[in-house]
Automatic annotation (TrEMBL):
<feature type="region of interest" description="Disordered">
    <location>
        <begin position="604"/>
        <end position="634"/>
    </location>
</feature>
<feature type="transmembrane region" description="Helical">
    <location>
        <begin position="170"/>
        <end position="194"/>
    </location>
</feature>
<dbReference type="InterPro" id="IPR006876">
    <property type="entry name" value="LMBR1-like_membr_prot"/>
</dbReference>
<feature type="transmembrane region" description="Helical">
    <location>
        <begin position="139"/>
        <end position="158"/>
    </location>
</feature>
<feature type="transmembrane region" description="Helical">
    <location>
        <begin position="418"/>
        <end position="439"/>
    </location>
</feature>
<keyword id="KW-0175">Coiled coil</keyword>
<dbReference type="GO" id="GO:0071875">
    <property type="term" value="P:adrenergic receptor signaling pathway"/>
</dbReference>
<feature type="coiled-coil region">
    <location>
        <begin position="217"/>
        <end position="244"/>
    </location>
</feature>
<comment type="similarity">
    <text>Belongs to the LIMR family.</text>
</comment>
<protein>
    <submittedName>
        <fullName>LMBR1 domain containing 2b</fullName>
    </submittedName>
</protein>
<feature type="compositionally biased region" description="Polar residues">
    <location>
        <begin position="611"/>
        <end position="634"/>
    </location>
</feature>
<dbReference type="GO" id="GO:0016020">
    <property type="term" value="C:membrane"/>
</dbReference>
<feature type="transmembrane region" description="Helical">
    <location>
        <begin position="371"/>
        <end position="389"/>
    </location>
</feature>
<keyword id="KW-0812">Transmembrane</keyword>
<feature type="transmembrane region" description="Helical">
    <location>
        <begin position="516"/>
        <end position="535"/>
    </location>
</feature>
<feature type="transmembrane region" description="Helical">
    <location>
        <begin position="100"/>
        <end position="119"/>
    </location>
</feature>
<feature type="transmembrane region" description="Helical">
    <location>
        <begin position="34"/>
        <end position="54"/>
    </location>
</feature>
Amino acid sequence: MSGAALGIEIVVVFFLALFLLHRYGDFKKQQRMVLFGTLLAWYLCFLIVFILPLDVSTHKTVIFHVCEHILCSYFQSTQHVCYKPWSYIPDGIMPVFWRVVYWTSQCLTWLLLPFMQSYARSGGFSITGKIKTALIENAIYYGTYLFIFGSLLIYVAVHPQWRLSWYELQTIGITAANTWGLFLLVLLLGYGLVEIPRSYWEASRQGHLLIKTYFKVAKLMTEKADSEENLEDVMEEVRKINESIKYNHPLRKNVDTILRKCPVEYQEKMGRNMDDYEDFDDKHNTYPTERSLSKLHKQVIYAVQRHNRTRVQWQILLEQAFHLEDVAKNETSTSRQFIHSFAPPEPVGWFRRYIYTPTIEWYWECLLKQWFYRMLSVVLALFSVAVVWSECTFFSTRPVLSLFAVFIQLAERDYNYLYIEMACFITIFFLCTCVYSTVFRIRVFNYYYLASHHQTDAYSLQFSGMLFCRLTPPLCLNFLGLIHMDSAISHQAKEQTAYTSIMGSMRVLSFIANGFYIYYPMLIVILCIATYFSLGTRCLNLLGFQQFMGDEMTSDLIDEGRELLRRERRKRQRIEDGESRRREWRERYAQRDEIAARNRTSMSEMKETNYGETLNSNTNRQAKYTRGSSQTGRDSIELLQDAEALDFNAETLTDDPLQSEPGRHAGGRYLSMSSSRSRIFDDV
């Protein structure tokens, strides 16, 4: 059972990382190397977060061993029995596991992902060209790290008092990486602790959320127009180069590569000019170089990605705005049936047909959802207050002021390992939600932006993987400090967890362990206050970056967004009206065609019936004026089957092989081709 818990979490975390990557990345269009690097980075970070509670629970089983020993030696007559927790992991597994996971994530974030980031963003036309560009772009990046590390090594080697071993050098490197990560962690955590509860509270206010959506519509429309203009400019430059570089130019294959990255409508407009046989060596013409084509290739990839992203986001935002307007209209409905303005693009499934009916949807959207979000916001706000209090008091061990440390110690006294795991999991999950959600929300112009619905570019995906790998180790150390499981911070002689043993002892750098790691997290109070009063948003608004303020400063954009949404609603209504009219005409003409086809079928049947009756009447009429039909039929059969010639000199004509009728004269027959034994006119 102990290995089952670890195996289940490993599998579940993998599918969680795969689901998020599928939501933000594009499996069909993006490079496999980019997807694999991002998936591995996210998977390792999520794995650290989910497995750490098991490590804490396994560490607490030291109490189990002590209890078992005492029972065997002293309390043999008692009935109290200690038991292993269901998630107990045998000794020796967790240190190896943490060593592999940690060093793999560090190699990704400091070495591989920066190189892969430059490789994916390069505009080169070959693998060699992309590798060369990535090495040149990362030369300064890697050179800075090598210079700092080399300087430290020289300083340690020259200093006579310092005799550092390999383990201590390794601890110094880990401490430096965790210090950089903790500096960024406090900034992101301070924002998430306030913004997440506030976002759910604002989501419960339908009117405020609708006004904010109007603001987003106006802002996104501006960005959409800008992306379309940028794409037009880049496509114009591609058109000029496509016309200047002919079919027999050595760089023509590079131009074809650029054209394949362009949208289909632009490819059809520009063509390939394969019928032009002008000499490319003409001295009067100036041709671009391979370097300029690589730069243009990079611009085309960026422009197309940005245009597609804004187009998809525009459609999604319109759907959200229409839904919010429908909720505002249905709140005053007396029928308590949720009515949508437009029909859903997809057919209604069984869930909406039988479970999430219009009545259930009305109660959820117009009544229950608001109160649910408010209650959830209050619960998250209480968690945020507990985290802020614990961050400011976790260094105090006597008395214990950290709330999370109090909860863990109470569970430790009762040997309740399941409660320890659940408390650790909920705490670290909330901390990770605050930090990781900030990573998914922040946007650095168009340089870094995680967009859902498969619209995130390769550079942003790998940058997020780098951030996760750098933030997760200091986040876990901070969590262990909150529950007093890090002896370097709590200064208590306790058995360390497997994770802290891999991190090494921070006492090698006492000024970081006793100073920075303890007092720097207190700045989270200042950051929470700044986030609560939206100081960052106000500063960005003053600098010219439009941000939603909810006052007169953004009223123009709100009115513009409302008008844009009204225009889009009219456009969509006209489209639906046209579709309904065409559908009605098709149904009407289908009925008319069906009636006409039915009439044609009945007329043809009547004609066939009349024609058959006419034939029968003609046959009867002909039978009155001719010989017997049987005799005529037999004559015809005789003629067609080359019957034997008859002898006209016979006494009787009953020798007809077809049995001619008795008493009837068989006149008018053909003469035999054989020689007659009598005169020819004897029968006349």
